[in-house]
C-alpha cells in the first residue's frame, strides 16, 4: 500500500512539475511574442517618423518658406511706351510677416491679408509694402515718389489721385526714379505730373485686365 501511495505521490509531483514547465514555456513564448510585437511597433514608428522628417525636408517646407518670403524670379520687359511688365510669376499668398520683394516699389507677390485703402487715398508717410501690394491685387494703381520729385508734381499728383477711385499715393524713398506708377505686374516711370503717360497708365491699369481680383474693395482696409 505504501508503495502504491508513494508511486501515486511521485506521479502527481511529476505531473505538477510538467505543468509548471509547460507554464514557464508558455510564459517565455509570450514574452518573446510581446518583445517581437514591440520591436515591430517601434520599427514602424521609427519608419513613420523618418518618413515625416523626409517629407518635411522634401522641399515642401522650403517652398512654403519661399512663398512666405514672397521671393519671385523675373525681370521687367518694357514696351515702346515705357511700361514694364514683370516676366516672372507673382505669388498671391496671404502672409503675416515682412516680404522681400524683387522690385521697388513691388508690383505683386505675397502680401498681408489687409489692403491699404485705395479709393483715391493719399498718404504722407511710407506704407508697408505688404498692404500696398494687396491694394494692387484689387486693381489699384499706386503712385509713388521720392525726395527728388518736385513739390509741385507731388501736389498735382495728389490732386489727381484724390479724384480717381482705385488709386493710392505714398512716398517710397528707395525707388530708382522720382515718380513711378505701379499696378499688379506692371510699372513705369513718368517725368512729371503733367506727363501724358500718367493719364494713359491710369486709364489702362485702374481695374484693368491685369487685376487678379476685379471688383474687390478699395475701402474697409488700412488707413493712416
Mean pLDDT, to the nearest integer, reads 82
- Unreliable stretches (pLDDT < 50, length at least 5) are 40-70
Number of strands: 7
Overall tally of structural domains: 2
The CATH top-level class label of the largest domain: Alpha Beta
- Name the beta content range: 5-15%
Verbal overview:
It comes from Streptomyces citrinus. This is DUF3105 domain-containing protein. Helix 4 links the parallel strand 4 (about 140-145) and strand 5 (about 165-170). The chain has a seven-stranded mixed sheet. Helix content is about 45%, strand content about 15%. The protein has two domains: about 1-60; about 70-205, 3-Layer(aba) Sandwich (Glutaredoxin). It contains five helices and seven strands. By secondary structure, the protein is α/β, with parallel strands linked by helices. The protein has helices at about 1-55, 60-70, 130-135, 150-160, 195-205; strands at about 75-80, 85, 120, 140-145, 165-170, 180-185, 185-190. The model is unreliable at about 40-70 (pLDDT under 50).
Give short descriptive properties of this protein:
13% strand, alpha/beta, 5 helices, Glutaredoxin, 224 residues, 7-stranded mixed beta sheet, 7 strands
Task: Compose a concise summary of this entry.
By secondary structure, the protein is of the alpha/beta class. It contains 5 helices and 7 strands, in the order H-H-E-E-E-H-E-H-E-E-E-H.
Amino acid at each position: 500500500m505504501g508503495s502504491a501511495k508513494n508511486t501515486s505521490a511521485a506521479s502527481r509531483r511529476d505531473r505538477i512539475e510538467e505543468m509548471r514547465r509547460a507554464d514557464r514555456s508558455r510564459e517565455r513564448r509570450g514574452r518573446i511574442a510581446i518583445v517581437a510585437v514591440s520591436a515591430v511597433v517601434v520599427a514602424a514608428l521609427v519608419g513613420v517618423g523618418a518618413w515625416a522628417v523626409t517629407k518635411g525636408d522634401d522641399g515642401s517646407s522650403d517652398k512654403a518658406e519661399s512663398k512666405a518670403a514672397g521671393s519671385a524670379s523675373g525681370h521687367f520687359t518694357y514696351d515702346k511706351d515705357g511700361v514694364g511688365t514683370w516676366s516672372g510669376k507673382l505669388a498671391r499668398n496671404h502672409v503675416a510677416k515682412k516680404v522681400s520683394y524683387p522690385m521697388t516699389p513691388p508690383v505683386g507677390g505675397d502680401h498681408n491679408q489687409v489692403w491699404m485703402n485705395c479709393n483715391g487715398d493719399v498718404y504722407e508717410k511710407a506704407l508697408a509694402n505688404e498692404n500696398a501690394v494687396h491694394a494692387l491685387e484689387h486693381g489699384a494703381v499706386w503712385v509713388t515718389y521720392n525726395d527728388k520729385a518736385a513739390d509741385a508734381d507731388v501736389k498735382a499728383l495728389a490732386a489727381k489721385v484724390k479724384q480717381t477711385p482705385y488709386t493710392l499715393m505714398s512716398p517710397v524713398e528707395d525707388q530708382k526714379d522720382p515718380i513711378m506708377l505701379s499696378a499688379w505686374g506692371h510699372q513705369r516711370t513718368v517725368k512729371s505730373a503733367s506727363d501724358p503717360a500718367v493719364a494713359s497708365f491710369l486709364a489702362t491699369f485702374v481695374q484693368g485686365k491685369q487685376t487678379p481680383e476685379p471688383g474687390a474693395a478699395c475701402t474697409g482696409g488700412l488707413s493712416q
